Amino acid sequence: MSDHAFADQRRSAILALLDRDTSVRVADLARELDVSTVTIRSDLDVLERAGKLRRTHGGAVALGRSVTVSVQDRRVNVNAEAKRAIAREAASWVKDGQSILLDSGTTALEVARALVDREGITVVTADLTVADLIDKALPGVEAVLLGGVVRKGHRYVTGPVTLAALGMLHADWAFICPTAMVPGRGFMTNFAPMAEVKSAMLDSATRRAALADVTKVGASGLVRFAGAEDVDLLLCDADPGADLRGYLSEKNSELKVVAA
After folding, report:
1. Start and end of every HTH deoR-type domain (predicted)?
2. Please, what are the domains in the chain?
3. DSSP assignment of 113-158, as one string?
4. Can you tell me the distance from the alpha carbon of 190 to that of 46, in angstroms, rounded to the nearest whole number?
5. What percent of the chain has pLDDT over 70?
């Protein structure tokens, strides 16, 4: 068999492994396929140029693999590009080796994806989908999944066990995703037990960021979990408007607002 045919066979095997596992590492592939790590890196580079995978530090992840998201996020999963932009900005504030408390939802999931090339980061989350993505596709990131009661159909945990675990932690960052940002009121969500988790995450971090596209300004939200004084950074996809900016600056003059 020619060298070209061997290479095609190897690359097909790599794609098959990616289809099964979502992520692969160079050292594991070299051992599995009985070739050098140099050869594997070359194969991964060829497959990335062909649009078959995405290279990461030390390996590769599959493209186009969908991760099941929760009921509420399937219902309101709009402004996807805005959420990706916010997530990229959030990830840029995190240094390798730091720890993150990461909220539930689509924007949080995009934050996890934006950490794909990072090393030595620990992400603590109550969201099963976020933890699953990290486990399968982010070889340089460690996932810590909080315990608690799984809210049926929503793929996250809440309750006394969740709050007790958060009470033991102190992370470098908390990234929280409100359902609504209401001028004069603060950051809101619609499920009281999740409001408790969000608030506990903010209490358990050195730096605290709220992540929300501008459609959340003045949106419907039943339960307040934080005010402007409880966050250090607000990341949006555009200017959140004079009313919200006025409320934020009045309550917390040091709060930084960034349009991603």
Report:
1. 7-62
2. 3-62 (1.10.10.10), 71-259 (3.40.50.1360)
3. HHTTT--SEEEEESBHHHHHHHHHH-TTEEEEE--SEEPTTT-BEE
4. 47
5. 93
Give 175's strand partners: 102, 209
Give alpha helix (H) positions in the chain. Answer: 3-21, 26-33, 37-49, 71-76, 80-92, 106-114, 128-137, 160-166, 192-203, 242-251
- What's the number of CA atoms in the CB half-sphere (13 Å) around residue 122? 11
- Write out pLDDT tens, residues 176-198: 999 999 999 999 999 999 999 99
Burial 53-75 (b: 16+ CB within 10 A, else e): bbbbebbbbbeeeeeebbebbee
- Rg, C-alpha atoms of the chain: 20
CA 124 from chain center: how many Å?
A: 10
- Amino acid at residue number 31: R
Q: What angle do CA 102, 87, 260 make, to 5 degrees?
A: 135
> What are the angstrom distances between the C-alpha of 9 and each of 13, 14, 16, 43, 250?
6, 9, 11, 11, 63
Residues 90-105, mean pLDDT to the nearest whole number? 97
**Bridge partners of 234?**
210, 257
| Residue 234 and residue 212 in contact, taking contact as beta carbons nearer than 8 Å | yes
Rounded to an integer, what is the distance from CA 217 to the centroid of its chain?
21
Q: d(Cα 87, Cα 91) in Å, to the nearest integer?
A: 6
